Amino acid sequence: MSLSFRWIPAVFCLAACASSSPTPAASEADAADPGSAKPAETAAPSAEPAAPPAETPAADAAPADEPAPVYKGPTTGSCESGNASACVEKAEALEEKANASDKDIATARSLFEKACNANFGPACAELYERARRDSNADQAKLSSMLVVACATPHASSCASLADRYAEGKGIAKNHVKEVAARAVACEGYVYGQCTIIQGLAKKPEEKDAVRIMAAWKKACDGGDDKACSAIKQR
Question: Is the distance from CB of 183 to CB of 155 less than 8 angstroms?
């Protein structure tokens, strides 16, 4: 099979001529003006891909509360095996020695810190009490100690933590957590906290109201006249 170029007026094409002989030179009539040829049609541009649908900004989700730091270590065995309670006992024994040396005191503190770092509430409560009057103390660290101690729950630590939530001292202000911490303190017979939450929870959600009422009742039963008065006013 041979291929030849054949001129057609105003059109330039490629034809397959299987049976024809070679074409003689083109005549003048066949020599069309190249300028008269129709320009090749440009293929229509393909449609642009559809733009993806605009994303609707998601509403800001409320940050989930972190779980309370709870001690999950062993409750039996020695301090060396990881029993935080044993570390506290060992620390107290060192401090109570008749002739406790500076080394004994330093070792005792390190044992308290070891137990607190393991989320053992009583150790954190003890460390907080020792450091809270230190003007140079790391306030964020003190607040962290109270969070652990309150989760035990340690009532007086919850009362101190509530004050910090109210003031934003070493921890972000949080009214809801403040009320919750005061309620725990009230339930733990720190009766002054029962009267404080009366003013804080003027319009509590139902779940908070139930807890606060239970705390007030406990305080009232314990002899707190202000708590009894608060119950009557509800």
Answer: no
DSSP string, 140-189: HHHHHHHHHHHTTT-HHHHHHHHHHHHHTSSS---HHHHHHHHHHHHHTT
Task: Please give the Cα distance from 159 to 144 (Å, whole number).
Answer: 14
User: Would strands 3-8 and 11-16 be described as parallel, antiparallel, or unpaired?
Assistant: antiparallel
Distances in Å between the Cα of 75 and the Cα atoms of 61, 87, 88, 94, 106 are: 38, 11, 12, 21, 24
CB atoms within 10 A of CB 44: 6
CATH topology assigned to domain 138-233: 1.25.40
pTM score, whole prediction: 0.64
Please say whether the beta carbons of 187 and 218 come within 8 A: yes
C-alpha pair distances (Å), 205 with each of 176, 179, 180: 10, 12, 12
Query: What tens digit of pLDDT does each residue of 115-149 get?
Result: 999 999 999 999 999 999 999 999 999 999 999 99
Instruction: Report the C-alpha gap between 147 and 172 in whole angstroms.
Output: 12
* CA geometry: angle 225, 231, 233, nearest 5 deg: 105
User: What confidence tens digit (pLDDT) does each residue in 171-181 have?
Assistant: 999 988 998 89
Residue whose C-alpha is closest to residue 110's, from 132, 127, 131, 97: 127
